[in-house]
Amino acid sequence: MVVRPAPGAFQDRLLSSPAGRQNPATAATGRPAGSGGIVVAGIALFVMGLGVTGWGTMYAFNLRGAVDKAVTRRNAVRAVTATRTMNLGLTEPSRFGPWFFRLMGAVMLPGGLFLALVGLVIASLEN
């Protein structure tokens, strides 16, 4: 014969904590155990913001010929696609010239700075 506990008795015992005991994860710091994740997220946003800022600066100001290389690469990809698909409309150069990549860089530059600032604010928050 199998003796089974009353429904919910075991779950009630798991969910209730003994009176007067403090969770060891919060005893030393006074913070919940998972609060370090927000700092990691803030640091990750800051690093991504710095990367976007660098990339935006590179395209906005055509550093080291980044815009010219991107336009050349785009036209080469269009030519390869044209030969694969037999679409003669793709053999012409793209209408999006260097101005498009400079515009994207000009949008990415302040966006990356904003993302880095948000990352710093989130990383410096204390719960």
How is this structure best described in words?
The chain is mainly α. The protein has one domain. 65% of the residues lie in helices and 0% in strands. Helix 3 (36-60) packs antiparallel against helix 5 (98-124). The model has no long low-confidence stretch (mean pLDDT 83).
Feature tags:
flat; 65% helix; transmembrane helix; transmembrane; Non-ribosomal peptide synthetase; membrane; mainly alpha
Can you count the helices? 5
How far apart are the first and last residues' alpha carbons, in Å? 53 Å
Order of helices and strands: HHHHH
Beta-strand content estimate: under 5%
Q: What is the residue-averaged pLDDT?
A: 83
Number of domains: 1
- By DSSP, the count of extended strands is 0
User: Tell me, what's the shape?
Assistant: flat
The largest β sheet comes out as: none
Flag low-confidence runs. none
Rg from C-alpha positions?
A: 28 Å
Determine the fraction of residues in helical runs and give it as a percent range: 55-70%
Structural class: mainly alpha
